[in-house]
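Exam prep: given the inputs below (a chain plus D-xylitol-5-phosphate), describe the expected output before reading on.
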Amino acid sequence: METMDIQRGNPWKQLAGPVIAPSLLASDFACLGQQIDILTATGIEVLHVDVMDGHFVPNLSIGPPVVKSVRAYTDLPLDVHIMVTDPAYYIERFAEAGADSITFHIEATNEPQRLIDRLRELGLGVGVAFRPATPAKKIADLVGEVDMVLVMTVEPGYGGQEFMPDMLDKIEAIRAMLSSGQRLEVDGGIDQKTGRLCARRGADTFVAGSYILGGKDVAGAVHALTRAVAGDVGRTMENL
Ligand code: DX5
Ligand code: ZN
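Solution:
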């Protein structure tokens, strides 16, 4: 259980190398604590939390009360991906609930810089995400301001969807915009094979829901994905 004096803070400043971020959306919510214990035992360093408001995406998922319970249960950094129409309102709620990093969608706001500044004030990690149809250039002006860019490799809203290979060029384009201290996260349809393809194009943070929690061998899946991306992440970073 977490002790109160733990300093929450920007996890992306503390993590090095490839990061596997299991998505809790694929969890059995009837035994979420046990699922977190199983994941923790595999050595993962971050938990990915998908927040859906039933408006920005056609699905409803996790709210601040669940994040608050998860926060009280684990010390693992919480990488909160908010797929909501009103990110400015929800940033405050999820910061209070215990998020360590919040990633909002560029399509959901006309004032991304204000959101970034607010997340910095709160001392949280800052990520910006974009849907498959949104071009890379949409974030060109603010890319230097964030810790991480999340490239959706499926249409946001559901787990268990097919990976979109036409996102690979976008990953490469985004990588070229980022400095070596910034992260590139991919999310949707990530498994051993698609994870490696993304690593070769510059991804270094890999969200996986159904691949990790949908099967019987959670540890096996985490280790297979870790091995699959490890070599390529190193090589891509060297070319920067
Ligand atoms: C989808 C979410 C993803 C999803 C990933 O909108 O952002 O994080 O849970 O699940 P898989 O890995 O099953 O595609
Ligand atoms: Zn996500």
